[in-house]
Amino acid sequence: MRNILIVDDEKNIRLGLKAMIAREFPEAYTFEFAGDGEEALQLLQRTTIDIVITDIRMPVMDGITLINRIQEMVLKPAVIILSGHDDFPYAKEAIRCEVKEYLLKPIIRDELSSTLVRLENDLKLKEQISEQLSSSLQQKEAFKESQLSYLLRHSHMDGETMRSKLGQIDMAWVEAGFQIGVLHYRGTITGMKPSEFLVRIQDELAHVPEISRHRHAIVQDKENQLMLIAEQGELFLSLTERITGAGYFMYSMGLSDYTRGAEQLQSAYMEAQEALKYTFLQSGPGSVSYESICAKNKDFTVPIATIQRIANMLGTDRNKEMSALLLEILDMKTVARLDIAYVEAVSKAMNELVFDKVFHVYGGESVEILRLFKKVGDISNFYYFSDYYHSVEGLLDRLNGYVRTMKTFHIDHREMKKATQYIQENFDKDLNMAMVSNHVSFNYSYFSQAFKEYTGESFVHYLKKLRIERARELLATTDFKVYEISERAGFENVKHFSRVFKEMEGVSPQEYRDLREVIS
Question: Which of 42, 176, 295, 302 is most buried by its number of CB atoms within 10 A?
Fold first, then answer.
């Protein structure tokens, strides 16, 4: 179904044209309407239109201005002009703008119908040609990409074979000189697919001066990054200028040295990949050349002792000291001076000596902390060093509280176990909560709360249960008098014992004994 835009400042003409077309071609077209050229242009920018039928004389923007503006569009709709004047200047401008038909008002139905039939045939033919051309180009590009990918993966290939294969994909120009850029998306669109990234980069290349992009090729590598190879180094200079522009599509780029010879293709690719790693140290999208980083100091020692000190401080609320140590090992001046391998090694050591150790010792019950831990554990999850640094600092802060809580829990758990054992060994004596809390060296109020969390019941109820359980056992298995059992179970007098027993068992001690004898 085609989409027709009817542009006329008279509403009755717009609706009349729609009715005429819909009656002649039922369900063949959908319709959009505009009252002048400016309104039509706005609609064309947000909607795909196949055919524009426009008047010449309209307020705000006339039809001639509109058809000239349509010529600036990448995807141009077919245009039919309507006019009440058979003026040669209008017809001349229409021909220059590739207008398909010039119809005079009042519109004759047969003329409009035959024009639309002719346009439909033209559009179908154009689509067939476009599909065939697109298919052919796609096959050619696919073969070119596969060959380039193969050449990048196979380092054993000799120069002669490389030159031969590059010649097969029209890239013999590499022999005279080339430069490689590896591009990685750095934007905020989640789930950006490599194919979408490729389309966006191809669109950006269209804005580079044609002489700079005369000979170039672009291919997706095994890391789902884009590898751009160009004969003119100016292409990368143009892209670098655009990257740093305000509001620009965000990506980073690592650049190889400019070199020549097919046998240098793989080494140049490796240089670009290495340079790309250093965009991590930038504060935003940009490019880094291999020349600027190849002399970085590779002689460094990973500060294991300092990292171990950070691990030891977790749970002690010494956050400022931990932050100072983190700044010491990841100081930007130090990081910028050393090879990027230093940051990678520090990240690995932090994972092994700090983060992994915490979860090995204390487990991982906090989903939020686990999510942050998973992200910080892989430095490739971050576009920029500053984001990584602040995330590490944030995780250390969270882990400090987590470890403190877990330490408290483990200490409390051990002491509560000690307390319940003491109660079980001494419940038949004169025992109260103050005596037990002193036994485990806990504050009286804190012990009361911790005991209830550990056992699920208050100290008084827990003690009563133990004493009643002992009393039941003695009532069922011995001939001791009730007052004797009361004393052996730890109650202060028989009256108190009888009342508590009936509250918990529903019968008096003697009734309980009589019932047990009947059952026996």
Answer: 302
